[in-house]
C-alpha cells in the first residue's frame, strides 16, 4: 500500500499540469465550502491587513498596530494625514494585496522558486508579528508561520512546490470571496465603515465602483496566475 501511495505521488508530482489542476480544484472547494472557509479565511485576512500595513509604511504613514479577530475580521491602524494619496492607497491596498500575493506565489512556483515563496512568506509574517496587538492575532500568525516552516523544512522540493501552488490558488480564488461578502453586507445596510465606504467618503467615488475595481483586479490576477500554474512544466 505504501509503495502504491509513493508511486501515485511521484506520478502526480511529475505531471505539473495535473498537479496544478488538482491544487486549483482543491483550493476552489476550500474557498466555497463554509466549513473550511471560515478557519482558512484567517490566511486571507492576514494578507489583507498586511497589504494595508505595507502600503501605509511605503506612503510615509506611521503603523500603530494590527489586530486579527476570531471572526476573521482585522484592523490596521496607522497615523498620518487623514486625507490625500497616502491614505487612499492604504485603504485601497487590502483586497488587491491578497490576489497579488497569490500571483507572486504562482510566478515563483512556475520558475522553480517555491522555497523563496515559503521563506519570503515566513519573513513577512515575522515582520508582521511585531505589529500585532492582540493575542488571537499572535496565534494566527504563529500557526500560519509554523505551517509554512514545516513545509519548508520537512517537505521535499516537489511537495514544497505543490503546497505553494495550493497556497497560490487559494489566495487567487480566496481573494475574491471577501469582496462578494462585503457587497452582500452592504446591500443589507451593514459594513458602513468598510474600506470601500471610507474610500467613497474620501474620494467621492461610489463604494460600489471600488468593489467592482477590486473584483476585476482579482479576476485578472486569477486568470494570469492560474494560466501560469496550469502551463508550468512540472511541480
UniProtKB/TrEMBL annotation:
The protein, known as: Peptidase M50B-like
Keyword Membrane: yes
Keyword Transmembrane helix in annotation: yes
Species of the source: Saccharopolyspora antimicrobica
Pfam families: Peptidase_M50B
Keywords (A to Z) from UniProt: Membrane, Transmembrane, Transmembrane helix
Transmembrane regions: 12-32, 88-107, 113-131, 136-153, 159-180, 209-231
Source domain of life: Bacteria
Alphabetized InterPro entries for the sequence: Peptidase_M50B-like
Amino acid at each position: 500500500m505504501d509503495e502504491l501511495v509513493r508511486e501515485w505521488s511521484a506520478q502526480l508530482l511529475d505531471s505539473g499540469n495535473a498537479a496544478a489542476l488538482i491544487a486549483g480544484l482543491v483550493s476552489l472547494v476550500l474557498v466555497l465550502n463554509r466549513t473550511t472557509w471560515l478557519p482558512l479565511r484567517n490566511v486571507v485576512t492576514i494578507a489583507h491587513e498586511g497589504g494595508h500595513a505595507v502600503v501605509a509604511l511605503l506612503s510615509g504613514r506611521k503603523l500603530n498596530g494590527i489586530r486579527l479577530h476570531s471572526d476573521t475580521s482585522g484592523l490596521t491602524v496607522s497615523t498620518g494625514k487623514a486625507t490625500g494619496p497616502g491614505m487612499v492607497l492604504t485603504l485601497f491596498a487590502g483586497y488587491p494585496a491578497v490576489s497579488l500575493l497569490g500571483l507572486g506565489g504562482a510566478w515563483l512556483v512556475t520558475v522553480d522558486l517555491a522555497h523563496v515563496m515559503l521563506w519570503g512568506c515566513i519573513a513577512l509574517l515575522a515582520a508582521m508579528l511585531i505589529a500585532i496587538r492582540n493575542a488571537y492575532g499572535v496565534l494566527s500568525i504563529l500557526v500560519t508561520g509554523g505551517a509554512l516552516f514545516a513545509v519548508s523544512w520537512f517537505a521535499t522540493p516537489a511537495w514544497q512546490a505543490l503546497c505553494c501552488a495550493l497556497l497560490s490558488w487559494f489566495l487567487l480564488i480566496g481573494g475574491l470571496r471577501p469582496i462578494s461578502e462585503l457587497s452582500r453586507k452592504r446591500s443589507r445596510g451593514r459594513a458602513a465603515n468598510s474600506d470601500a465606504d471610507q474610500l467613497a467618503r474620501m474620494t467621492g467615488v461610489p463604494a460600489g465602483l471600488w468593489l467592482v475595481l477590486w473584483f476585476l483586479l482579482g479576476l485578472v490576477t486569477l486568470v494570469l496566475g492560474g494560466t501560469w500554474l496550469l502551463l508550468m512544466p512540472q511541480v
